[in-house]
Amino acid sequence: MPFPWSRMETDLKRELAHHLYELTAEFERRGYSHEEAVRMAKREFGGAEQVKERCRDERRWAWMSGLRQDFTFALRQMRRSPGFAATAVLTLALGIAANVIVFGVLQGLVLRPLDLPHADRVMTLARADQTYPIFTWPEVRDVRDGNTVLSAVAAWTMDSFGLEANGATRPVWGWQVSGQYFEVTGIQPFLGRLLDRADDAHPGASEAAVLSWPAWKSEFNGDPGIVGKTVRINKRPYTIVGVTPEGFYGTEKFMQPSIFVPMANEASLGGGDWLESRQSHKVWSIVRIQDGVTMPQVQTELNTIAARLARQYPKEEEKLSLKLTRPGLMGDFLGAPARAFLAGVLVLAGIVLLAACANLGSLFTARTADRTREIAIRMAIGSSRWRIVRQILVEAFLISILGGACACGLAWTALTGLGNWHLPTEYPMSFHILPQPSLIPVVFLVSVLAGVLFGLVPLRQILKTDPNDAIKSGSQSCAGRRWAVRDLLLAAQIALCCVTVTAAFVSLRGLSRAMTVDTGIQPKHAVLAKFELSTAGYSGTAADRFQRRLLEEVSHLPGVVAAGYANNTPLVNPAPGSPVFSQQTTDFRSSNQAFGAYVFVISPGYFAAAGTPLLAGRDASFTDTEKTPAVAVVNRQFARRLFHSDDAVGRYFKNSSGLSIRIVGVVADGKYLSLSEDPEPAAFRPISQEATAKTSLIVRIRPDSSDAATNDMAATIRKIIRDLDSSIPIRESSPLNTQLGLTFFPSQVATGALGLFGAFGLLLSIAGTFGLASYTVGKRLRELSIRVALGGQARQILSAALGRMVILLGSGSLVGMLLGVAASRLLSAVVYQASAQDPFVLLSVAITMVLTGSLSVAGPVRRALHLDPAKLLREQ
Amino acid sequence: MTDKKTDLIQGTLDLLILKTVAHEPIHGYGIAQRILLTSKDILQVQQGSLYPALHRLQRKGLLTSEWRESGSGPMAKYYSLTAAGRKSLQEEKAQWQRYAGAVALVLES
What we know:
The complex is a heterodimer. In chain A, 52% of the residues lie in helices and 15% in strands. In chain A, the strands form 3 sheets. A 6-stranded mixed barrel of chain A has the order 2-3-8-5-7-6. Chain B is of the alpha+beta class. Chain B has a single domain (13-108), classed as Arc Repressor Mutant, subunit A (Orthogonal Bundle). The radius of gyration of chain B is 15 Å and the shape is globular. Residues 1-5 of chain B have low confidence and may be disordered.
């Protein structure tokens, strides 16, 4: 026979049959007739099934064969009530998937170290005085040469390059890296060699470039003979010397550079000759700590270096203070908010899981109550209580496994989608998020734990079941029952779901505020084209001539109402901050500065094209030249900060090189770096006084034109630039509002994530409420029928059937909203301008909860109202 | 059957079974009968306790079993003592005698 337990079963049966046979024979020997003997033997023998059950319990294979029976039975039960099974599985899957997705993102962005050898020794150099970890090259070089604890110190900066290969020029993102960059990373080349110290020894030391693996695949079709080939970068010949390995994406977790070139060549690549400047904060830095050196030792040395630099260069380095932070997310600049956001979302995910568990608990309790009769019968025919508990556990286990599998499927789809998602930006950003297989066992562990733990909620109910009682009274004993565990669970679950719904509404509100915030520019009906003339070999007057010619051509296009250009665009390409000094200042050390302001360089017509209102004075003009006095247009905040009045036209300020600049105009405030910033001062200098090759051309068309017309204009501008010089790699030419996408990205992500959790929460509360309401009505059908038969009014029937549900829903929602308001501090870390005290938010949450509540009890209410007492009473 | 039956003290059933099986291989019904006989109809073993005990002892490795023709009719499951069972019987027996002696001492003092 195939299974040990089936042989055992037969043996047991035969053994007991033999006993009965001997007993019968004994009675026959005493002189009874055969029939009488059989009857007496049976009476004497008693319950054979009970004996068998106890023998099974004693047996070696007992637990396994029992388990097999339990599994078969559980599967049969699930097939018999697919509604219960599906709800339980879905509940568990949603709760767990939410957590796995959040954890997957957390792991990908925060927890997982950079994919480098000995990544624990790699750190980002950061400033203690500001979160944005940006440095000048001389600062990084001083750290490199002045320390004894770091084995390698490197600087890097990113730039858009025109890469000319195989006869075409394409814009690519490249990292300019200092000599020790690849020493810090510790990686080995996939092909050829990487850049080393000799390549970066001095400007022009080498014309070597290293390709990243994806760029080698996409730009060069994975050409195995790539090493040694010559390409042109910004019109200058470079030799490809190597390719980085496949998994390497630089030292930032969300970036993917295409090419690496020596930073020493920065000036010849058209970046603007900032390498030796102590005022141009242009580079990020990454370091590798020597083995055996502790963090406090490094910090001590960094303090010494910073103190020495501050003494040596009091003007530039007065406030310098250095520290190390975790690499990968621009130090703490992105790292801190990302960690705070993910921690907040993780809490919400935890709440969703808790709510799911509460839902599961009440589902199991309701189900056990339904099965009281069945359990009683099983006990009566000899099943032990433990056996019944085990049966319930097996059912919970099966549901957990199914739930875990669904959760894995959901989470994998979501994480893969996120990993392949391209951010709405021209920057080389992508999430290196991959679902980790190591999460699978964790998913199932959590799933089984949650399922089994909450499957045991009805344990007390089972243990106190008295077979006699249960069978006698059937299921009619629950009119006017006491408050049960399942009521509490439902209220708790609704409260938790209400918190997630509140969070979702708060973030929606935050997003709508962010969308309507005054950015100082009008993103609609405008096209932004961006390119870097230095990538095509232009500089100085050549660049100026090209820009003016382009402006001329574009301005005459039909439909164009304004056009202008700048070096940077607010929010899209934020301008660097520069110190501003009052007119009286003579000592330009940084502690004497009035404030820092964003400084843009603009052409005449820029404000009209961008849609920034000019409040006083005049626009920049081409008659402002290097020979005429330096002028600037400032925003209102600038005027107020410097002069404590809006009246600034005709007054002066100084920049860090001591140049006296006359203010000729005042424009409205705007947002420059992010939507959530406070009003910041900004200054706009005429491009004819500060020539630059960086070009952001803004063209405004008639406000009645359609979106299609805007897109057509973007294409036309692209064509005009190409006709003027086909070797200029155009980074982007598209409607301004699409390019502003990244600005809204954080709010959108927050709203998306929280909205999803809100939806999860709502689904769960609908499932839970519907489940319990229909269960309550189902249980009390008989009682309700009698009420109807005796002439009960609809209102009375409803309050009898569902009055308690309403109390539960109401109190749960109230507690949830109070919790949500209490958690608004947590939410404000997650969402911009979040406030749960907002009456709009509170009202929306209340309406949503009432709607979901009514929706989920609608079915049971219908059932209660359409009772046909005659039919039901006949049946029972 | 008579009314002088006495319930077995917890834990003594295993000892009685081991002792009964020690004579010769014997089936379940035979064990119950022999205990009843040798105790002069005082100790009646219910099958509800007997069979679970047999299965328990077998799981512990104190008994083995085999199917044989019984004298009268169908095949029956005959139990016999294993070496471990024999050892266990010695120990249990000594323990029981010590216990019974001690109880007797107290009662007669």
